[in-house]
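Here is the promised in-class demo. Please do not try to memorize the tokens; focus on the logic of going from shape to residues.
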């Protein structure tokens, strides 16, 4: 009994430490965003600003086109998430239901593709987009985001498809439904939590992505928010800490808001699927 209690205490302590580890950067970012320049230069920093101010936010918007960059990021992230889900859903269905060598090879490719670093794939992607005349365009960036998110989206959706009872599809086939009708009318509604989670993953990945946007987008009018955030760092590597923290805080809000809105639906959908007979 004592061993079990000690084990639970250890688990809760480890979980608490992990939460503190995850929350510390964000809490420090929020604190920095509301501090005055005098507090930012203090030798004895505090968690709670003594004199909270919104000057960092005003300065951030005055110095950089944050709204335009946020619009570019939002457009690219939404388009990438929608396209990735539309492509990954039928492919995941085939990979999960067809136990063939080709399906196993595709699953292996999904796993192996995650090991490739960004630097390794940027040159061939750049050459392909150059031939298609999509360099310095949001359409080309969306294409890259879709390609980059698709393997992990497939891996996620394959697991959700395999969790759907095959008997439901067999019953639909007995009633005369074809593969496409079964996927749309029977499987897709049960996959809704998985599709939403996959779309959220693709959106957050595209929203936070920096390297591809830095290489592929040249004109300031088309740059995304992560790239614009680097403009708060001077040529000598000195960061304008207050406005940078304010802009970075605003950049994290869409992901947090979207997750807060849909997380209850994701959890509810998973629990509902778990009790189906």
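The designed amino acids, position by position:
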């Amino acid at each position: 009994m004592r061993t079990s209690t000690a084990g639970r205490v250890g688990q809760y302590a480890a979980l608490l430490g992990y939460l503190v580890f995850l929350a510390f950067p964000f809490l420090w970012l929020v604190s920095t965003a509301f501090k005055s320049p005098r507090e930012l230069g203090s030798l004895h920093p505090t968690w709670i600003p003594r004199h909270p101010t919104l000057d960092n936010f005003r300065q951030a918007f005055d110095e950089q086109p944050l709204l335009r960059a946020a619009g570019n990021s939002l457009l690219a992230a939404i388009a990438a998430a929608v396209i990735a889900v539309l492509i990954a859903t039928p492919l995941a269905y085939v990979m999960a239901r067809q136990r063939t060598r080709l399906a196993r090879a595709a699953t292996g490719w999904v796993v192996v593709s995650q090991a490739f670093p960004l630097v390794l794939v940027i040159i061939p992607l750049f050459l392909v987009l150059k031939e298609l005349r999509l360099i310095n365009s949001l359409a080309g960036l969306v294409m890259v985001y879709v390609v980059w998110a698709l393997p992990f989206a497939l891996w996620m959706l394959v697991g959700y498809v395999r969790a759907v009872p095959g008997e439901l599809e067999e019953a639909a086939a007995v009633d005369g439904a074809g593969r496409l009708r079964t996927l749309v009318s029977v499987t897709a509604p049960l996959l809704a939590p998985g599709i939403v989670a996959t779309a959220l993953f693709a959106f957050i990945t595209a929203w936070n992505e920096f390297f591809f946007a830095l290489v592929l987008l040249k004109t300031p009018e088309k740059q995304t928010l992560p790239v614009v955030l680097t403009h708060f760092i001077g040529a000598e590597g000195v960061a304008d800490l207050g406005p940078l923290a304010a802009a970075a805080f605003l950049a994290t809000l869409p992901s947090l808001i979207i997750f807060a809105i849909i997380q209850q639906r994701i959890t509810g959908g998973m629990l509902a699927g778990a009790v189906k007979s």
